[in-house]
Specification:
Blueprint: E1 5-8, E2 18-28, E3 33-44, H1 50-54, H2 61-65, H3 74-89, H4 95-120, H5 122-128, H6 140-147, H7 151-171, E4 180-181, E5 184-185, H8 191-234, E6 250-256, H9 263-267, E7 282-288, E8 291-293, E9 300-303, E10 341-344, E11 350-351, H10 353-361, E12 364-370, E13 377-383, H11 391-416, E14 438-447, E15 450-459, E16 462-469, H12 471-476, H13 487-492, H14 503-510, E17 514-516, E18 519-520, H15 521-529, E19 539-542, E20 545-548, H16 550-558, H17 563-566
Parallel strand pairs: 6-11
Antiparallel strand pairs: 1-2, 2-3, 4-5, 6-7, 7-8, 9-10, 12-13, 14-15, 15-16, 17-18, 19-20
Length: about 575
């Protein structure tokens, strides 16, 4: 049949407006002809202009306004904005304030990682691996009771709420917490806050250790069977979820959760010094196909050949661009994205949970995690299944980080009791009215989706320029000036697009046993999906056929896209 163009827009179960176009190639395996993705294009269909909105405002507004970039991940934007302001003000948080900031951010992380694992990417994983607890509860209470269908999915909804409650305890509310300030925080540690934090975190820890970790280990086991059957069906060796979603093999992390007693090590990176931030929980660095290099701020540039901005800013450091409407080129020929194309040392880098784990732990994550309250331990042992990245490795990294960060929340809460000082804001701040006449600062943090940078420049006591380089710009961005596809565009290459096969059809091929309510797995899914009108889910027409995009969507969702973050006008035409 030849090449087909398969277009999916909008992609659901993500944040923001994203589409992808995939050009196929037909490959004869000797057993059958299959359609694989040859080239992919990521269309970030949203422009918001937050950097432009911030110009001329009180610098302290950045903490509040940038949280509105995204309702899913407001907390990291607030923290990154505050760290940029810390530097611009020339003040740094007290140890007590660092602990409180860490608790807020870690609790937010746990919520985000769990909700993404089970609600956003989990359905594809559960369906293809025949693992009912991670499939949405389409049969209601009956399905949960008889099959465990949606069991972990439903439990996750309760557990992630407890993480949000911890954010609200210290942040005042969630989303869009209100308790951070240049040089510290505006909330004091109390016995009640510490006790509630420990109680809620203990429940989350138990679930992460006993349910979430067990789920991902079971998925790894199911993937072995899936790999054997997929290889037999296709006639080529295929490791299933371990071979789906491989990108460039370059990973970038800015590090997160600084040591409150060694903040000097943390701020080096903000000043452009080479840094691994090894005193933090998660390290900083650039992993380039097996070689780890220190993070160097000034090696970050953005290209715009295929982005809707004027070419004169291409290849510049983000903070050297005077962000205004003058650099926007909405109708630019050949541009297909609002996101820019960030590069580090000229290379495409994947950012996110997998990048954090590889930069910090390498390709084998083997350690014990000890509950600081109960002293119960659980062993984590995960060998990265694809050093260039994969769907299963990304999901595993989120689950493992949720467990690690919940543990740290309890450690920090206990540690807070040891701090007698009442200083929650750097004493160099004489009052809450002070704003420097001029200054500049960089915040280098991590959102759950990956490396997050905010830059602020203050002139005449207002924001003179602002820049955000966010995770989904790194991951979902388009080709650069040299034609190199972005991380997700690369990860979609060679993904199988089954032709004229529905999700139930594929599941019956992969899991032919009649052991689910006396039916094959695909037939059982069909009985749940058909009444909802979803039996032909993810079938996209092109070139006289219908292509099942479920695996491709799993690849995209494994990066947890956030397009609202990624491209800071929707053109409305009436009539």
């Amino acid at each position: 049949m030849g090449m087909a163009k398969v277009w999916v827009d909008p992609i659901t179960r993500i944040e923001g407006h994203l589409g992808v176009t995939m050009e196929t190639k037909e490959v004869d395996t000797g057993k059958m002809k299959i359609d694989l993705v040859e080239r992919a294009y990521s269309h970030t269909n949203l422009f918001r202009g937050f950097e432009i909105i911030l110009r001329g405002r009180d610098p302290r507004d950045a903490f509040y306004i940038t949280q509105r970039i995204c309702g899913v991940c407001p907390a990291p934007h607030g923290e990154t904005a505050i760290q940029a302001l810390d530097q611009a003000y020339g003040v740094y948080p007290t140890s007590k304030a660092v602990l409180i900031r860490n608790i807020i951010q870690a609790a937010y992380y746990v919520y985000d990682h769990l909700i993404h694992t089970y609600i956003l990417v989990g359905p594809e994983i559960g369906v293809v691996c025949k693992y009912p607890p991670m499939v949405p509860p389409a049969l209601g209470k009956y399905g949960i009771r008889k099959l465990g269908l949606g069991l972990s999915y439903v439990q996750c909804l309760d557990i992630q709420r407890k993480a949000n409650e911890i954010v609200a305890l210290w942040g005042g509310k969630f989303p869009h917490h209100t308790s951070e300030y240049p040089g510290g925080v505006t909330v004091k540690a109390t016995k009640d806050r510490i006790a509630q934090t420990l109680t809620k975190a203990a429940e989350i820890w138990e679930w992460c250790a006993k349910v979430a970790l067990e789920d991902i280990m079971t998925i790894r086991e199911r993937n072995e069977t899936l790999s054997e059957r997929l290889s037999e069906i296709l006639g080529i060796e295929h490791r299933a979820l371990a071979d789906i979603g491989a990108s460039w093999g370059n990973f970038l992390s800015y590090g997160i959760f600084p040591d409150p007693e060694n903040y000097d090590d943390w701020v080096k990176a903000q000043y452009g010094e080479p840094s691994y931030r090894r005193s933090a929980v998660i390290y900083a660095g650039s992993w380039q196909n097996g070689t780890l290099k220190p993070l160097e701020r000034d090696k970050i540039v953005e290209y715009v050949k295929y982005s809707r901005y004027k070419d004169e800013i291409s290849g510049m450091k983000p903070w050297d661009v005077e962000m205004s409407v003058d650099v926007v080129w909405k109708d630019k020929p050949n541009a297909y994205a609002w996101a820019k194309a960030p590069r580090y040392e000229g290379k495409v880098h994947e950012v996110g949970p997998l990048a954090r784990m590889i930069v910090t732990y390498g390709l084998r994550w083997n350690f014990e995690v000890k509950n600081p309250v109960t002293e119960e331990t659980v062993t984590v042992d995960w060998e990265v299944m694809n050093p260039k990245g994969s769907v299963i490795d990304r999901v595993a990294s989120r689950v493992i980080q949720a467990l690690i960060f919940t543990t740290k929340i309890m450690e920090w809460a206990v540690q807070l009791k040891e701090y007698i000082s009442e200083h929650i804001v750097n004493p160099k701040i004489p009052d809450y009215k002070y704003v420097p006449n001029e200054g500049e600062g960089w915040g280098l943090w991590e959102a759950p989706r990956g490396a997050l940078l905010h830059y602020t420049r203050i002139r005449n006591r207002v924001i003179d320029n602002y820049a955000c380089v966010v995770p989904s710009t790194w991951n979902l961005g388009p080709r650069d000036d040299f034609g190199n596809p972005g991380a997700v565009e690369k990860a979609l290459e060679n993904c199988w697009l089954p032709k004229d096969l529905s999700v139930p059809d594929i599941c019956n091929l992969l899991w032919p046993e009649e052991d689910v309510l006396g039916m094959k797995w695909g037939d059982a899914l069909a009985s749940a999906l058909t009444p909802l009108g979803l039996a032909e889910l993810n079938l996209e027409p092109s070139n006289g056929a219908r292509y099942n995009t479920s695996l491709a969507l799993a690849v995209v969702r494994s990066f947890d896209p956030c397009i609202a973050c990624g491209v800071h006008t929707i053109e409305l035409r009436v009539g």
